[in-house]
Design a protein that fits this description.
The protein is α+β, with helices and mostly antiparallel strands. The chain is built from 32 helices and 25 strands.
Length: 991
């Protein structure tokens, strides 16, 4: 049973702000009376709920066509105007024979490349013209059990929806499976396989092979193998398609802002003509866990930390999705969470492991399992495994306390109650995905209120007691097979024997005494000062925001919006962010998140804080922005005051518990070897530091620096940073303004006045132009490399309009690079171009292209990137290309603007820099008026060949070989740079 939330309707203020013409309700209303009924007989029974006693969600409408295709459709207005479409095919890698491995995924690629109604390569362009962004709005996914085609169609009309469903129907019924198409797409699929992170893939494959030994899932990764992909023929791929792509194995799901009757009619119109080829295939046998298969395995991956993965497996059996089954699952989940919390408590206290957890899951209809994952400290996996098994054994022997059960149940209650309260804000795309997931696992969906009722009914039946949780714990750790896999960093011939012995070792009584969590309430928090008073209060009506200044200097921005029912977003920005970190030396800024979030408050440890907030919508995240540090949370109207009080207490009296610092060190050190294992790892370690010309604020600390860091060092850095600089509070969402102001006054407003930041922000540097790329090496597969080319741009508020032109330029370059490097050359699976413009800094912006390629295609990447850049400098783009880029960008902004986080992010910092408010008003205006001349002028200003910086990451085996750069295009002399044509002076804006 999956929770689905219902339709929302709310005024679209952002549409007025951005100057768009949309219905006032945010709905594209198609009157039911005007929508003709389907022209063929449709079985309208709720096929999803067959055999279930769970009340059907009345918002969904179901049907089965004469050809066997099923559909589920509903109305949803989040975001306004969008229609989310999913076409699920009940065919994944588990349906493949040995010689067909990778074919299900290959068909996914070929279907997007071309089909009955779409010439080769045109599907992306068709949906771009409808405003859909390739990769996020249009995508597909192949798993062991299904292939799903996804489309989120913005500002949908009947004509656009009809055309889109026609295209999707052609993709699944008659994809272009020809020798030419296969030969063109095969390199892109092989590139996708090549670019996957090798160590993680090998560990994942070993995990499947170990856990599901003797079952098809053991060796059915959807990507396939190089051998089968290279041997694939169009005839063989088409045979797989014709066998499994059949209407009776298809489900069409639609959730969006049009009449469901229209959805039904268009599904009938576009999919009823689809007929299967040949006889219906029998579903393959996925097997079941067998005790006679090997129970342990060892893998040696030096670039990964030691890892212990365990599974207790039971056969997966279809069960009708009933209320009682779901209630029993809830008890099992409580049992797993009780153990996981005990393990987390030990990890925080500095045990033998950094992390450990227990979970239950049904995997690919192949097994039901209980899974244990352990990340040891250092290489002593045996000690970590013994300690974790001892905790599990104790849980199987002695019931949990009433307090432990109540604690976990409170969190479950909060999650489910929140879904009920926020159901109007649930996006249609999320609902469509949930429906697809339910079909895949052979279960149902239910409205949030129904699921909450199931939980409360289980409570009334006293299903959550220490005795029932003990019984559940015993049940989930009983199975037909127990399997374990460890990763070690150095070969050890005796590791397999050690692992087998460790799994059989008696750990009874080794768990020690359970630590009972003391009762804590908010009276235990450090006292704050006298509540602040309001000095000024100003409304900005066109944005529904209000500015408030308190007597202690704190500034508050409010935005009252019921669009996301009972959701309240809170952000406290303070200090100077990266601008305030030391630029002349290394610092333990990397330990900030764990030490500040998990370091406790006053005398309270993190466990006390979590007990304090149990059953509440109260949380905390920490972030470092360009010009501020921030605490962030999503809460509710009823929890807002205590959420703010908790934030204020953290700022006033951080606990400085040393254990989170030790844990942060262990986490960082555990990942160090991984940096060298792939091009991605090298880039994540080195690129930011290099692009900032060695500025330590963006560098990765060395192993020696991490080892030498102490809790005192962390406190020495962060204590003054927490206490200085201005404070800006943002409270956006479903709030009462007066109540929110009072809550801020009694919390952040009660902090002492803060000293202003006196230091000058260090300049942000960019590396000098290099004629030949900087070469870095990695120790991973010899067929992996990466290439980066970067042009410096700018930063700050003054010319953010120009940054928007750079966003357009980057999107155009990315589209072209994708077409040439992937679709045409098959040299890279996911090359991309991005523009980054730091609003909170005076410089540091950059436009960069990046791609993973084979080593012999590094030169090709640079050649194509520079050819594209030179062409954009020399020639204006066509109006069609400009609109194909601009329309999805505008639609993305429009949809995002219906949520409060859009406003919060764009207005961050505006209480101290009002230019950001003014600039937001011009966001859509700037995109609406950008011309090809503006794009060309921007390219001429920034894409200068004597300013770029390049880097390549190649295998160590090629380190001594010179990187041969084939002659690129002759550099086009840039004409005199002129600013983009604008009618008015550019207005500054946030990011």
């Amino acid at each position: 049973m999956l929770a689905l939330l219902r339709v929302t309707r709310f005024p679209l203020i952002s549409a007025l702000l951005l100057g768009l013409t949309l219905p006032a309700s945010g709905q594209n209303v198609v009157p039911t009376v005007d929508v003709p009924a389907p022209t063929q007989n449709v079985d309208r029974s709720a096929w999803l709920y067959k055999g279930s006693d769970i009340p059907p969600d009345p918002e969904w409408r179901f049907g089965t066509l004469l050809n066997g295709l099923r559909y589920a459709v509903r109305r949803n207005g989040v975001p306004p105007g969008q229609v989310a479409i999913r076409v699920r095919i009940d065919a994944g890698s588990l349906m493949e024979t040995d010689g067909e491995r990778g074919f299900a995924h290959l068909i996914e690629h070929l279907s997007f490349r071309g089909s009955e109604y779409v010439p080769d390569g045109e599907a992306k362009r068709i949906w771009q013209r409808f405003g859909a962004t390739f990769g996020s709005d249009t995508n597909a996914q192949t798993t062991p059990t299904q292939t799903v085609f996804k489309l989120d169609l913005p500002s949908a009309t009947e004509a656009g929806l009809d055309e889109s469903l026609k295209v999707l129907a052609g993709m699944v019924d008659k994809p272009n499976i020809t020798t030419a198409a296969l030969n063109a797409e095969r390199p892109a699929v092989l590139a996708e396989q090549r670019e996957a992170p090798g160590p993680q893939v090998r560990f994942g494959d070993a995990r499947l092979a170990t856990f599901f030994a003797g079952q098809p899932l053991a060796d059915r990764s959807p990507i396939g193998t190089i051998k089968t992909l290279e041997a694939a023929t169009a005839e063989g791929v088409k045979l797989f398609h014709d066998r499994w792509y059949r209407p009776e194995r298809a489900v069409v799901v639609i959730s969006g802002d049009l009449d469901p009757a229209l959805f039904e009619r268009l599904v009938v119109k576009n999919f009823s003509g689809w007929q299967g080829n040949g006889p219906k295939p029998a579903d393959p046998d996925f097997g079941k866990p067998e005790a006679n298969q090997p129970g342990t395995a060892v893998i040696v991956e030096p670039s990964l930390p030691p890892i212990v993965a365990m599974a207790v497996l039971r056969p997966w059996k279809y069960q009708d999705d009933t209320i009682l089954m779901n209630q029993n699952r809830l008890v099992d989940s409580i049992a797993a969470r009780v153990i996981s919390r005990r393990l987390e408590t030990r990890a925080r206290a500095g045990g033998s492991f950094i992390q450990a957890d227990v979970s239950t899951d049904d995997v690919s209809r192949s097994a039901s399992g209980t899974f244990v994952n352990i990340l040891p400290i250092g290489d002593d996996w045996e000690a970590a495994l013994k300690d974790v098994r001892a905790v599990i054994a104790d849980a199987q022997t002695t019931p949990p306390s009433d307090a432990e059960v109540t604690r976990e149940l409170a969190d479950f209650d909060t999650v489910m109650r929140t879904r009920v309260e926020t159901q109007r804000a649930e996006a249609g795309a999320s609902q469509a995905d949930d429906m697809v997931s339910a079909v895949d696992i052979r279960e149902t969906v239910a409205a949030p209120a129904t699921i909450y009722t199931v939980l409360k009914d289980a409570e009334k039946k006293k299903m959550f007691t220490p005795a029932t949780v003990l019984a559940s714990t015993k049940r989930i750790f009983t199975g037909d097979a127990t399997r374990a896999l460890i990763n070690i960093r150095t070969p050890d011939e005796g590791a397999a024997t050690k692992l087998a012995a460790a799994l059989k070792a008696d750990v009874g009584g080794l768990a020690g005494k359970r630590n009972a969590q003391a009762k804590v309430d908010f009276s235990k928090l450090p006292r704050l000062g006298k509540p602040g008073t309001v000095v000024s209060r100003e409304k900005i009506s066109d944005m529904d925001i209000e500015k408030v200044v308190f007597s202690n200097g704190v500034r508050l921005m409010l935005r009252t919006s019921p669009s996301e029912s009972t959701r309240v977003y809170v952000r406290v920005r303070f200090g100077g962010g990266y601008n305030a970190l030391p630029a002349d030396r290394e610092s333990p800024a990397w330990a900030g998140e764990l030490s500040l979030v998990a370091g406790g408050i006053g005398t309270l440890k993190q466990g006390d804080v979590e007990q304090l907030t149990a059953g509440r919508r109260i949380g905390l995240d920490f972030d470092i922005d360009d010009d501020a540090f921030s605490y962030d949370a999503m809460t509710s109207p009823t929890d807002l005051a205590d959420q703010l009080r908790l934030m204020a207490a953290r700022m006033a009296a951080p606990g400085w518990d040393p254990n989170p610092v030790a844990r942060a060190k262990s986490l960082v050190l555990a990942g160090y070897n991984g940096f060298d294992a792939s091009p991605d790892g090298v880039l994540s370690r080195d690129l930011e530091g290099l692009l900032h010309d060695g500025d330590p604020r963006w560098g990765t600390p060395t192993r020696e620096e991490v080892l030498a860091t102490t809790a005192a060092d962390v406190r020495k850095l962060w204590e003054p940073l927490l206490a200085t600089g201005p404070i800006e509070v943002q409270v956006f969402g479903d709030i009462n303004a007066d109540a929110a102001i009072k809550a801020v006054a009694q919390s952040i407003g009660a902090l002492p006045p803060r000293a202003a930041s006196t230091g000058v922000a260090p300049p942000v540097r960019f590396p000098a132009h290099n004629v030949t790329p900087l070469i870095k090496t990695h120790g991973g597969p010899e067929n992996q490399a990466a290439a980066v080319i970067v042009w410096p741009t700018g930063g700050g508020v003054e010319q953010v309009t120009e940054s928007r032109y750079l966003d357009v330029l980057a999107a155009i370059m990315s589209d072209r690079l994708f077409d040439r490097l992937r679709s045409e050359a098959g040299a890279s699976y996911s090359p991309s171009v991005q523009s980054q413009w730091p609003v909170g800094m005076s410089g540091g912006g950059r436009l960069f292209a990046i791609g993973q390629v084979a080593p012999d295609n590094v030169a090709l990447f640079f050649k194509m990137s520079r050819e594209i850049a030179a062409d954009l400098v020399a020639n204006p783009i066509s109006d069609d290309e400009l609109q194909r880029i601009l329309t999805p960008m505008k639609q993305s902004i429009l949809r995002s603007s219906t949520g409060n986080q859009f406003w919060m992010n764009y207005l961050a910092g505006s209480m101290y820099d009002e230019r950001r408010i003014a600039a937001l008003r011009g966001l859509f205006r700037d995109l609406a008026r950008v011309t090809s001349a503006d794009v060309q002028a921007t390219a001429q200003k920034y894409l200068q060949p004597d300013k770029d910086w390049t880097m390549a990451v190649v295998p160590k085996a090629l380190a001594d070989k010179p990187l041969v750069l084939k002659p690129t295009v002759t550099a086009v002399a840039a004409p005199e740079v002129k600013p983009p044509l604008v009618k008015k002076k550019p207005v500054a804006v946030g990011r």
